[in-house]
Amino acid sequence: MANRLESLFSPESIAVVGASRSERKVGWEILHSLLAYRFRGRVYPVNPRAGSIHSIRAYPSVLDIPDPVELAVIVVPSAHVLQVVEEAGTKGIRALIVITSGFSEVGPKGRQLEEKLEGLVRKHGMVMVGPNCMGVINTHSRVQMDATFSPILPLRGNIAFMTQSGALGVAILQQARNRGVGLSKFVSLGNAADVSLHELIEYLEGDDQTDLILLYIESFGQPREFMPIARRVTKGKPILALKSGRTEAGRRAAASHTGALAGPDVGTQALFEQTGVLRANTIAELFDIGAAFSMQPLPQGRRVAVVTNGGGPGIMAMDAIVGVGMEPAVLSDKTTAYLRARIPEEASPVNPVDLIADADAKRYGLAVGAVLKDPNVDALLVISVPPIVEDEVAVARSIWRAAKKQSKPVVSTFLGRGEQSPGVTELVDHSVPTYLFPESAARALAAMRRYQEYLERDEGTYRRFRVRRKRARAIVETAVQERRTRLHEMEALELLRCYGFRIVRSRLVDNLPEAQAAAEEIGYPVAFKAVHPEILHKTDYGAVVLDIRTRQELDDHHRTLSLRLEKEGFEIKEWMVQEYARGGKETIMGMNLDEKFGPMLVFGLGGIYVEVLNDVVFRLTPLTDADALRMVRGIRSYPILEGVRGEPPSDVAGLAESLQRLSQLVQDFPEIEAVDINPYLVFEKGKGCKVVDARILLTPLERGAR
Amino acid sequence: MANRLESLFSPESIAVVGASRSERKVGWEILHSLLAYRFRGRVYPVNPRAGSIHSIRAYPSVLDIPDPVELAVIVVPSAHVLQVVEEAGTKGIRALIVITSGFSEVGPKGRQLEEKLEGLVRKHGMVMVGPNCMGVINTHSRVQMDATFSPILPLRGNIAFMTQSGALGVAILQQARNRGVGLSKFVSLGNAADVSLHELIEYLEGDDQTDLILLYIESFGQPREFMPIARRVTKGKPILALKSGRTEAGRRAAASHTGALAGPDVGTQALFEQTGVLRANTIAELFDIGAAFSMQPLPQGRRVAVVTNGGGPGIMAMDAIVGVGMEPAVLSDKTTAYLRARIPEEASPVNPVDLIADADAKRYGLAVGAVLKDPNVDALLVISVPPIVEDEVAVARSIWRAAKKQSKPVVSTFLGRGEQSPGVTELVDHSVPTYLFPESAARALAAMRRYQEYLERDEGTYRRFRVRRKRARAIVETAVQERRTRLHEMEALELLRCYGFRIVRSRLVDNLPEAQAAAEEIGYPVAFKAVHPEILHKTDYGAVVLDIRTRQELDDHHRTLSLRLEKEGFEIKEWMVQEYARGGKETIMGMNLDEKFGPMLVFGLGGIYVEVLNDVVFRLTPLTDADALRMVRGIRSYPILEGVRGEPPSDVAGLAESLQRLSQLVQDFPEIEAVDINPYLVFEKGKGCKVVDARILLTPLERGAR
C-alpha cells in the first residue's frame, strides 16, 4: 500500500481554495509559488468571485472542477474551512494543506473548531497538514511543488526541513537560499492536527531524495512515540533539531503560543541523547551544521588539521577546534617534510599549516592535498583571509578540487567575506561548506563527528530481570487501598529489595534499649536516624548521625537528638538503626514522572557539592543496558567513580544494572510517581551497591491510573 | 607636552617609502588607500626607480624630499629597512609605520634585526608601529588617514580597533564595513617593537573621537603593565577584547606564530575579570557587541522585553535572553492594558509581545514605544520575521523612531534577512544595531549590562596588614641559605602564622608515646599523619587518618599505618598529631608563579568533587579587598559557603582577608614560587579559618630572584 503522505508530497493535481486576485495576499502568493516553481501537474484556483486568477480559469468550488483533484491547499477564512473540507471530501480529494489560522492556537473556541476539522478529515480518510501552517514544498524534479506563501523559491537538495513555527518558515527558506543550501522537502507543521512530526519522520526515512532531516520544534506532541521512531531513523539518516522554549522564560512563551504544554528541557535533552538526534542551539547552527552534513562525508576520527594563510586565524581555528571537543591533528613527518620542501621558509608546515599571506591557488592546492592524504588527519578546515592578490576564485577552485580527491570532510572559512562573495560561491557550488568564521566550521565538524560516533555506538538491549513482582504488587496495593501517597520507610526498602536492590542492614526500633540491641546485632559502627512522618529529608533536620562507634556514643546521640527534635516540635517514636558502611561512595538514583515524557530516571553522585553544582543526568524509560551505562558515565564527576588519587574504581556496572532495575520497576508500576534512593552507596568494582534510604511516592487516586 | 603618538595618528605629511607603480603590490595599495581616503595632508611617494606614482612626483629617498615630513610608512624589503629608518631619523621624521615583515616573527636572525631597528628608533627619538603590521587608520575628519594596504575604506565612527594579527586586519575592516560599524582609529600592532598595546590604550583614553576600544590579542606583552592602565581606562570607556590562543592547542600555535610565550588562559581570564575588560569569544561576537556599545545606551538593569511579529522567534529570543543571564521583563498592567486595546485579539500583549504576522509599521511603533516606557523594562529586543506584506523599511523606521525617544537600549533582529537588506540598513543607519539572529542580540545586551554592572561595582582598596615580616624573612632566608626549595612542614605553618593565618594545633612527634601525649594535650578527636620527605600529597598515600576519638584508635592506626607505609618503602620517623576540627569546611588556597602574569592566587572548595569538577578561581596580585571577596564568591559551589540545607553560612570575610594576606606574603617574598594551603578550614561566619596543612616552595637559586 502506498504511503498516505504520497498525495501530500506528490499530487497529480492541486486546487488552491481561496486563491486570490490581489497580489500580496496569501491566496495569491500560494498560487504564484506553485506556478513560479513550475509545478509539474495541474493547478485549479478556487474562488467563488473570480473567473480567472493568474490567467488560469477559476472555479467557484472544488465540486465545480471537472477533473479529479488530489490535493487542496486551503486559505479561506477559518469560518469557511469546515465547508471547504467537507466539499473536498465529497470531491474525493486525498490530501489537504490548511494554511488558515484561528484554530487551537487562539484558545478554546479555536480548539473546538480544530476538533471538528480533525473529525471531517478522518471521516473522509484524508491526510492533512496544518491548520495554521505556511505550506509544503517538494523539490523533486518530477513534482516541483512549492505550496507555500514564501516569496523565496527553494533550491533543490538533500535536506528535508520540518518546522513547527510558520513565522520562522519564511526566514528558514530565505536563509537556506542565501547559503546555497538545497532542500528535498519542506513542511510547516502548524498545529499538526493530523500529520504529526513522527509520521513525517517515518516517511522521510524512506524518501530517497532526503539524506538529512532538519527540525525546528517548539513542543513535542508525543515524545514517547517519537522516541522509537527517531532511534531507528537516526541510524540511517541524521536528524538535526533546534528545540526552542528550553529555558523557563522561553517555556512560558511556548505554552501561551502553541497552546501545548512544553516539556522541561531535561526531557528533551534525554530524548535527543537516547535517540541520537543532534541538537542545534540556534538557527544559524542548524544551517552551519546542516550544510556540512549535506555536502561532506563524516569524519572517521577527531583529529582536525588547519590550512591557513594567516597566523591569527589559524590560532583562532585551533581554539575553536579544541573548544568543540575535537583534537588538533599532529601531521606525520612525511607530510611535514613534503610541505617544508614546497612552501616558503617563513611558512609553517605543522598544524596549523600557515601558507602565509601571499599563498596562491597552487600553494593551497598542494597543501590541502598533502594534509588530506595524511593518515593522522580525520578532517580539514581551510582558511583564507583576504590576500592582497585577490584571486579568491582560483584559491577556492584549488581547495575543492583537492578536497574532491579524498573521502575526508573539508570545511572552509573565507574570513571577512560575505555569503555572496565569488570564492564562497565557488566553494559552496562544489560542496565545500564555507563559514564566515572558523568557530562555525569547527562546530559543524564536531557535530558530524558526534553523529559518526553515534552510528558506531552500541544501542544495547532492553533487559528484563527476574523480580518478585507479586510481592511488590502487594506492597503497592496495600498503600493504594489505604489511600496513602507515600510508602512507609520499610515498605519502600522492601519494594526495592523485590526488584533486586540490596539494602543496608536496617532495624526500625521504638526506644533506646531496642536501638542498643539492634546496634549490637548489626555491629558497630552504625548510623542512627530519627523517623517521623513529617520529616521528609532527614539531613535537613539534622536527624541523622553517622559513624557511631560505641554504645556510649549511641546513648549520647539518642539523648541529644530526642531533646533537640522535641524542642523543634517532633516527638520521635521510631528510630532507624543501620549498618554504617565504610568505603562506599554516596550516589543518588531516582525517578520522577513527567507529564509529557513519562517516567524520567535521574542519577548523580550524592553530597551537597554535587547538588549545588547540579551534576545529574536524566534519561527516559525504557532504558537499554547501554543507555544505563552511558547515564552513569554522563555525570561530570564520573572520574570520581573511576577512582581518583589512587582510589579503587567503583562498581559502575552495578549502578548501571540498578538503573535498569529501577526502569523495570517504574514501568511495571505506573502508580509510582517518584522514587528517591538517597544515598545509594556504591562500593568497589564487583562489590555492588546498597540502598541506605529510599522514598517512594504514589500518584494520588483522584488523578487516576495512567 | 603633546603625546608622542600625535605624529603617528595626525601627521601633517606622509612619506610612503617603497611606494610601487605595480597595482596589487603593498607599496601601491598603501599609497592608493591614502589617496582614496583623501588624506588631508601631503603624501610623498619614495622609490629610487620611479619618477612618479599615482600621478604624484616620487623621490629616490626621504632625504630628497624638499619639505618636512612627519610620518613615514615603510614597505621596503627587510634588508633595506634599517637604512631607510636611519635616513628618516636624519630627515627629522617623527613617526614610522613599518609594514615590512621578516623580523622577530621569523626567528633569531629576524629578532636581531628587530633589536637594531628598535635601537635606531630610540636613537632618533621616533615613535614606531610595527614592524610586520598592516598599518594605521585615523578617520578624524581633519586627518582622514588610511595608511593600510586594506582595499576596504573605513567608515567613520566611535570605535578604536587594535589588532595584533595583521592577517585578521583586512578581515576586520571588511566586517566593520559590511556591518556598518564605524571606526575612529585602527592600528595593526605587528610585533609591537616600540608602540605597545597599553601605550595605545592610554592614548585612546584621552581621544575624544573614541568611545569604545576593541582589541584582538594573541599574546600579552606585559600583562602587569596592562593591568593598572586597563583598570583605569575601562571605568571611562569600555574595552572589548578577543584573546585567541586560549586553549592548549591554540597556545602552541600562538607560541610558534608570534614568537611570544602565550600565557595560559587562566591568567588572561583573571586579568580581564580584574580590569573590567569584556571578553568576546569570536570575531563575530566582537562586532555584535561592539555595534551595540557604539550605537546604544547601557541598560540600567537586566530585564529585557521582546517585541516580535512571530511566536517562534519570540520563544527563541526568550531562550537566548535567559541563556545569557538576562531576565525576561514582566510588563506592567498599564502597558499590557494599553497594548491589549490596540493590537489584534490573537496578538499577545505580554512579554514576548507578539504583534502577529501582519504587523505593520504603525503597530510596531506603538508597541515599541509603550514597552520602552514601561518602568519594568531595561532593554528591548525587536524582532521582525518576513511578513507577506514586505514593507520592512517602514517597519524599521517606526522602530528607530520609537527607540530614539528613550534612553534604553534597543537592539533588533530581522530574521532571515541579509546584512544589506533595506530594513537592516535603515536601522543601522539610525543607530539600532541589527542581528541576523536573536542570540547575537541577546549577547550584546548582556555584555552591555555586564559593563554597566562593572561601572557600578566597587573596585575596593589595597589593604596592607601588620605582619611579622622580620620573622618571616628569617624563615625564608634559612631555607635559601640551606639551598632548599621547600620549606619544612612546621616552617611553612610558621610563615603563614607570621602573616596572620591561624593554624590548627599541631605537634610533630617521633614515636607513639609522644603521639599519645600530644593527643591528650590537644584533646580528642585528633588527626594523625605520617610525615616523610618523599610524601608530598599525604592523602594520595593514605598517610592521613582523621577523627581519631580514643587512645585505642590512635594505637591501632599508628600500627597499621607504620606497617603499610613500610611495605611501600617509607620508613616513618615523624608523625603529625593535629586537632581534628569539626564543623569546618575544607577549602584550598594557594599561589603559583606564572612566568608571564606573576603571582597567581587560587581559591576553591576542597575535596575530590571540586577537584574533579575543577571549580577554582584564579586572580592576579595585588588583590584589592573587593577582588578578594569576588574571588571567593566566584566559585560555582559558592552556595555551599553561603549555607545550604539549613547549614550556617561560612566565614567568607575571613577567607577574603586570608587571600589578601596571602597576596601580601607573596608580594613581599618574590622567592616564593608556590603556596598550597590544603586543606584550609573555614568555620561559621565570624569564627575564622584554620590552616591544616601547607606546602611552600621557593624558586631554585640558579633561576635567581625576579
Could you characterize the architecture of this molecule?
- The structure is a homodimer.
- With about 700 residues, the first copy, chain A, is of the alpha/beta class.
- Among the domains of chain A are: about 1-210, Rossmann fold (3-Layer(aba) Sandwich), CATH 3.40.50.720; about 295-455, Rossmann fold (3-Layer(aba) Sandwich); about 505-580, Dna Ligase, domain 1, CATH 3.30.1490.
- Chain A has 24 helices and 30 strands.
- In chain A, the strands form 6 sheets. Chain A has a 7-stranded mixed sheet with strand order 9-8-11-10-12-13-14, with helices on both faces. In chain A, strands 15, 16, 17, 18, 19 and 20 form a 6-stranded parallel sheet that branches. In chain A, strands 25, 26, 27, 28, 29 and 30 form a 6-stranded antiparallel sheet that branches.
- In chain A, a hairpin with a 6-residue loop joins β8 and β9 (about 145-150).
- In chain A, α6 (about 195-205) runs parallel beside α7 (about 225-235).
- The first copy, chain A, is flat, with a radius of gyration of 32 Å.
- The two termini of chain A are about 35 Å apart.
- Mean pLDDT of chain A is about 90; it is low at about 250-265.
- The interface between A and B is large, with 103 and 102 residues.
